[in-house]
Design a protein that fits this description.
12 strands; globular; five-stranded mixed beta sheet; alpha+beta; single chain
Length: about 325
C-alpha cells in the first residue's frame, strides 16, 4: 500500500508542482520578503484523542505544529486561518471556547493574528485545519534540498520525549491526575509541544543551516525526507543521538529509549545540516551533532554497536 508521502510525490510529479516538498510553500511577496505558507490537518482519534488531552492543550498543539513548520524555514509567523469541524456533542459544551483560548494563548506569544477560517458541523469527530502564513528575507528560506555530502547533521534538542508521553497516554496515564514532575514533562512533550520559532529565525540570521526541517514524523523519517530532497545519503551515529533524560526515569522505557528518539516523532525539534566549517558555531549554540551527510550511493545508514545498518522510515504513517 502506498504511503501518504508516495501519494504526495505522485501528485507533485503528475502535475509538475514545483513548490511542494518543504515544510512550507515559498512564494514571492515583494522585493525584500518571501511569503511562506503551511497547512496542517488534525483529526480526532487519528492525531489526538479527546479523553487524554484538554481543549486548551489541543488548541495550543493545533497552532504549534504549524508554527514549527514556519520555524523550519527560518521564517517569522504573521497570521493564521483556522477551520474546525465540530460534532454536536462538543458544540453544546464550552469545548470550543477553551480550544480557542489555548490557540490564542500560544498565538499571542508569537504575535500571530487569526485572520479567518471556517466552522462546520461534523457528523462524529472533531477536526482542525490550521494554516499559518509568515515571511522571510528574500531568498533566505531554508529548504530541505540544500544538504551536500560532507555536511554535518545536528538536532536542536532532546528527542523521544513526545513518544514516551504518547506511550504513557496509551497506558492510561492522564495529565489531569496530578502526575509527578517527570511524568508531566513527558506528557506535555506530547500534548503541548513547543515550536522553536526563535531558534529557526536565529539560524537564518547566522546562515547556519544548509538544509532544515522539523522533526514531526520521526528522526529517521524526517532525515530521509531531507536526504531524498537533497539527493544524498546519511549516516546517523546512535550513541550521539540526544535522548530525553526523563525517559530513563522509567525502567520499562529504558530499553525503548533509542526507538522513541529515532522513530517516535512529534518532538518538533529542528533537524539541520551544517557545513563542517560552521561546526563550532552549531556546538556553541548547544545543538547536538548526530551524524553526517554522505554520497547518495551510501543510502541511509545508522552506526550502532560497532555495526552499520540500513535505516528505514519508522515514524507514524496515516496509511
Amino acid at each position: 500500500m502506498r504511503s501518504e508521502f508516495k501519494f504526495i510525490d505522485d501528485i507533485r510529479s503528475r502535475y509538475e508542482l514545483s513548490r511542494i516538498g518543504d515544510d512550507c510553500a515559498v512564494m514571492p511577496m515583494d522585493d525584500a520578503l518571501d511569503m511562506v505558507i503551511t497547512a496542517d490537518l488534525l483529526v480526532e482519534d487519528i492525531d489526538f484523542r479527546l479523553e487524554w488531552t484538554t481543549p486548551e492543550f489541543l488548541g495550543h498543539k493545533a497552532l504549534a505544529v504549524s508554527l514549527s513548520d514556519i520555524a523550519a524555514m527560518g521564517a517569522t509567523p504573521r497570521s493564521a486561518l483556522l477551520s474546525v469541524g465540530v460534532p454536536e456533542r462538543l458544540w453544546k459544551t464550552d469545548f470550543l471556547d477553551r480550544f480557542y483560548a489555548g490557540w490564542h494563548d500560544l498565538a499571542g506569544k508569537h504575535c500571530v493574528e487569526l485572520v479567518g477560517g471556517d466552522i462546520s458541523r461534523s457528523p462524529d469527530k472533531f477536526f482542525v485545519d490550521s494554516t499559518v502564513v509568515g515571511d522571510v528575507s528574500k531568498g533566505k528560506a531554508v529548504l530541505r534540498s540544500g544538504a551536500q555530502p560532507g555536511d554535518l547533521i545536528f538536532v536542536t534538542g532532546f528527542l523521544g520525549g513526545a513518544a514516551a508521553g504518547l506511550e504513557m497516554l496509551l497506558d492510561g496515564i492522564r495529565i489531569d491526575a496530578s502526575p509527578g514532575t517527570t511524568t508531566r514533562h513527558l506528557l506535555l512533550r506530547q500534548l503541548q509541544p513547543i515550536p522553536h520559532v526563535a531558534t529557526g529565525k536565529l539560524l537564518t540570521e547566522y546562515a547556519l543551516p544548509t538544509a532544515m526541517l522539523d522533526i514531526s514524523d520521526g528522526l529517521t523519517s524526517d532525515l530521509i525526507h531531507l536526504a531524498r530532497a537533497s539527493g544524498t545519503g546519511v549516516l546517523l551515529t546512535a550513541d550521539t543521538i540526544p535522548i530525553d533524560p526523563a525517559i530513563f526515569a522509567f525502567p520499562n522505557f529504558s530499553a525503548k529509549a533509542l526507538e522513541f528518539a529515532i522513530g517516535g516523532g512529534e518532538d518538533f525539534e529542528l533537524l539541520l545540516t551544517v557545513d563542517p566549517e560552521n561546526c563550532d558555531l552549531a556546538l556553541d549554540l548547544g545543538f547536538h551533532h548526530i551524524g553526517k551527510v554522505t554520497d547518495p550511493s551510501d543510502d541511509y545508514r545508522l552506526a550502532r554497536n560497532g555495526k552499520i545498518e540500513e535505516i528505514e522510515p519508522t515514524g507514524f504513517r496515516h496509511f
